[in-house]
Design a protein that fits this description.
This protein has about 425 residues and is α/β, with parallel strands linked by helices. Among the domains are: about 140 residues, 3-Layer(aba) Sandwich (Rossmann fold); about 150 residues, NAD(P)-binding Rossmann-like Domain (Rossmann fold). It contains 14 helices and 12 strands. Strands 9-8-7-6-10-11-12 form a 7-stranded mixed sheet, sandwiched between helices. Strands 1-2-4-3-5 form a 5-stranded mixed sheet. Helix 7 links the parallel strand 6 and strand 7. The structure holds glutamic acid (GLU). Glutamic acid (GLU) binds next to strand 3 and helix 12.
Length: about 425
């Protein structure tokens, strides 16, 4: 199983003419494109394309009404060639197994892009956390933890927050795991509260990593971040922190949005005011001093930097041609389809792919895990400085690979990361 690096352009798989929005098939198309560039052996492709381990569990939970409700949850470990599986846990009504499989695969490439000693995993529970009480969420989380307990652990698989889970969720997982194995185990999850072995800088890490990547992208595009215009789709953990950090760099936040819609102000939105407003009203919609804008219109706004920071498949063949941003930085996982990638590249839009643009989260998760295992904690300054080093180095490695292979940054990042995982797989060899 030798790995060559010369591309064979005619052999690059053609993307199906009608767009398929199944995230797992999209993840496999992205992988296949890189595998062709790397001329990977067919057997090795089969190994890297498959999920190493898939667990589906039913989670009986006592609701506040006294009734029992059974939720379905998943944990998928895509690959563990370079280290323990790593990746978040998502609570959302639209979670599917294929989505979790895709997200797990993206984690493998993400940890390899920034060169962390991890594989990739993801978990999800089909539920509507906005309609559940804290007690219901706690009971569901603890039972889910006990169901997946045999396959997680600091050296096996380390969950973290993702969509609609947070540091409190991680504290419940850490506690349940520790009680069940009989010892305090800080390193079983990351994204924990600071009081429980969490790392300083973790809560802003996804957004801060995105900022570092965009700073490098701005140099390539000759854009001055000071005064640059920014539109952010999604105002959760990543989106709201990105708005704050970009505003601190004196960029102008033209528009922000959440699941209920968006708001716009050509003179700029104050992210701190928006956060306070959302805390009170549950949405940014209706914020004083702004006009209303739909999520669709926000994506096609004329701006320098567009940051999709919510869910998958928001930039597709339907709107890619209409995107007017000069840089698209994917704070979300999987927001752009392979068809849309090609359209953006043709238009000269610089897309910083998810596995690089949002890798700041898992990078500081890695720092947290390393601190937990050492029992020795770093200052916030140290965390942010090391994060900057990791993201900027990865940006330049991806950019260099992109240039060498005459492609766009998504495929460049895939060639770099798939190549690293392939190398690890080959040097480990096959058991038995
Ligand atoms: N859920 C985040 C992601 O998609 C963080 C994963 C982690 O920290 O392990 O990258």
């Amino acid at each position: 199983m030798a790995i060559a690096t010369k591309p064979a352009p005619q052999a690059i798989p053609r993307i199906a003419p009608r767009e398929d929005l199944n995230p797992y098939r999209i993840a496999q198309i992205q992988f296949d494109i890189a595998a062709e560039h790397l001329k990977l052996d067919q057997g090795l492709r089969q190994i890297l394309r498959a999920s190493k381990r898939v667990m589906e569990v039913s989670i009986p939970t006592k609701m506040d009404s006294g009734q029992v409700k059974v939720f379905t949850g998943y944990r998928v470990q895509h690959n563990i060639a370079r280290g323990p599986a790593k990746g978040g846990l998502r609570y959302h009504p639209n979670v599917t197994l294929d989505e979790v499989r895709a997200l797990a695969m993206w984690m493998t490439w993400k940890t390899a892009t920034v060169n962390l000693p991890y594989g990739g995993a993801k978990g999800g529970v089909i539920c509507d956390p906005k309609r559940m009480s804290k007690g219901e969420l706690e009971r569901m989380t603890r039972r889910f933890t006990s169901e997946i307990l045999p396959i997680i652990g600091p050296g096996r698989d380390v969950p973290a927050p993702d969509v609609y889970t947070d540091s409190q969720t991680m504290a419940w997982i850490m506690d349940t795991y520790s009680v069940m194995v009989g010892e305090a185990t800080l390193g079983v999850v990351t994204g924990k509260p600071i009081s429980l072995g969490g790392s300083l800088g973790r809560s802003d890490a996804t957004a801060r990593g995105c900022l570092f990547a965009v700073e490098e992208a701005c140099k390539l595009k000759r854009i001055n971040l000071r005064g640059a215009t920014v539109a952010i789709q999604g105002f959760g953990n990543a989106g709201s922190a990105a708005a704050r950090l970009f505003a601190e760099k004196k960029a102008r936040i033209l528009a922000i949005s959440d699941s209920r819609g968006g708001v716009f102000n050509s003179r700029g939105i104050d992210p701190l005011k928006a956060m306070r407003y959302k805390e009170r009203s549950g949405t940014v919609v209706g914020m004083p001093g702004t006009s209303r804008i739909s999520n669709d219109d926000l994506l096609t706004l004329k701006c320098d930097i567009l940051i999709p920071a919510a869910l998958e498949n928001v930039i597709t063949l339907n709107n890619a041609e209409l995107i007017k941003a000069r840089i698209v930085a994917e704070a979300a996982n999987g927001p752009t389809t392979p068809h849309a990638d090609e359209v953006l590249a043709r238009k000269g839009v610089l897309l910083v792919p998810d596995i690089l643009a949002n890798a700041g989260g898992v990078t500081v998760s890695y720092f947290e895990w390393a601190q937990d295992l050492q029992g020795y904690f770093w200052t916030e300054g140290e965390v942010n400085l090391r994060l900057e080093t990791v993201i900027k180095r990865a940006f330049h490695e991806v950019h260099e690979t992109t240039r060498k292979h005459h492609t766009h940054m998504r495929t460049g990042a895939y060639i770099l990361s798939v190549g690293r995982v392939a190398d690890a797989t080959l040097v480990r060899g096959l058991y038995p």
